Amino acid sequence: MQNPPDLRPDLAPRARITDTPRPGQPTIGMVSLGCPKALVDSERILTRLRAEGYAISPDYQGADAVIVNTCGFLDSAKAESLEAIGEALKENGRVLVTGCLGAEPEYITGAHPSVLAVTGPHQYEAVLDAVHSAVPPSPDPFVDLLPASGVSLTPRHYSYLKIAEGCNHACKFCIIPDMRGKLASRPHRAVMREAEKLVEAGVKELLVISQDTSAYGTDWKDREDKFPILPLARDLGQLGAWVRMHYVYPYPHVREMIPLMAEGLVLPYLDIPFQHAHPDVLRRMARPAAAARTLDEIAAWRRDCPDITLRSTFIVGYPGETEEEFQTLLDWLDEAQLDRVGCFQYENVAGARSNALPDHVPDAIKQERWDRFMQKAQAISEAKMQAKVGTTIDVIVDEVDEEAATCRTKSDAPEIDGNLFIDEDFEHLRPGEIVTVTVEEAADYDLWGRCA
């Protein structure tokens, strides 16, 4: 059994490309799969190619070759990657493969032997060399200049800001450290320089991402601050954009970030991958097993910042998970009352140590537990949404069409959380605007309101 896309929490927003090539300009297409971290890699590759005189094609037919940036997070992600490679070969014929699944080149070439090249994750120079071989550059020195800002695959008003590569955790179900290596944090000044350029270019929301955001900088031997994520968060908060923190492990020092949220420097939003609540399951996952202390931390965060939104993802049907252990997870969720919750059913992944664990859970039981989990999560979300009716909040406008303005509150990350819709007197709104609205209606995950 494989998780369909709507059961997977590792997906990035849909990439958006709007380039018009000049006559005769070499043109590259890009299919970007997987998480926001992979989307940032795609943006970096396209930025370099644009600077070398390549145009970026939004479709297969207009491209001289297509890069498929793959995901290898789960077997369903691998299957999606192989399917995307096959589609690109069918529609274009000249395909270069990169990304996490590129760490297993034989897996790719075994299914698709006609791909032109395979490179692994964040191997930017190797990708460029492969593109040069497949589609030689032909820059026009009078036209093709380095763009003032990098290529963005997201709407202009928000951008992902990747602050580190790799991960030092050894979770048994995950092979990302094998593919992307140990934690390697970007220098503080480099992150700030990129963030400043993004804000200068009109970005209103910075989505801070890495594999383990709260561990940022702890790989530096000679560091002034014990936990470099704290000064980085404070400095980012000075830029005047919304700053949203993703993939934050609940280390004790995260409590020191909460005052920044209460001050308004950082959005009161934490995306924390709890994964489970029963200590025995967490031990089998090789993750911290102090779920009770986590409830104490959550209470402390909410005490210091009552408006905080907590998002997390969970795995159901992990090998050996008993009905009692699953019930503990449901009871914990009842107590934690998380605002935003994603869940997926456990899958074996080639190379993961969890594959060898005993007592794998049958697919039918995984599905039944997923249904029960999401039913409880939906009920919690519905109650929290109803509690917002009548309140006045700030939202950022993502899209305006003939029917409504689609917006997000500070509690909503792009694509993975809910929306607030304004369907009256919205015609004057523009994407990227931050406006104040009064909430009038609520559903399970979404809100409706009007400009205050």
In short:
With 452 residues, the chain is an alpha/beta fold. It has 12 helices and 18 strands.
Structure report:
The protein is an alpha/beta fold and 452 residues long. The chain folds into 3 domains: 5-134, 3-Layer(aba) Sandwich (Rossmann fold), CATH 3.40.50; 158-386, tm_1862 like domain (pyruvate-formate lyase- activating enzyme); 392-451, Nucleic acid-binding proteins (OB fold (Dihydrolipoamide Acetyltransferase, E2P), Beta Barrel), CATH 2.40.50.140. The protein is 31% helix and 19% strand. The protein has 12 helices and 18 strands. A 5-stranded parallel beta sheet has the order 2-1-3-4-5, sandwiched between helices. Strands 14-15-16-18-17 form a 5-stranded mixed barrel. It starts with 26 loop residues before the first strand and ends with a strand. 44% of the residues are buried. Residues 7-15 and 143-148 have low confidence and may be disordered.
Distance between the termini: 48 Å
- Counted up, domains total 3
CATH superfamily of the largest domain: tm_1862 like domain
Main sheet attributes: strand count, strand direction, barrel closure: 5 strands, parallel
Architecture (CATH level 2) name of the largest domain: Alpha-Beta Horseshoe
Shape: globular
In the sheet with the most strands, the strands line up as 2-1-3-4-5
Which percent range fits the helix content?
25-40%
Weakly predicted, low-confidence segments: 7-15, 143-148
Structural class: alpha/beta
- SSE string, helices as H and strands as E: EHEEHEHEHEEHEHEHEHEHHEHEHEEEEE
Output the CATH topology of the largest domain. Answer: pyruvate-formate lyase- activating enzyme
Number of strands: 18
CATH hierarchy class name of the largest domain:
Alpha Beta
DSSP helical segment count: 12
Sheet-strand content, in percent, reads 15-25%
Backbone CA Rg: 22 Å
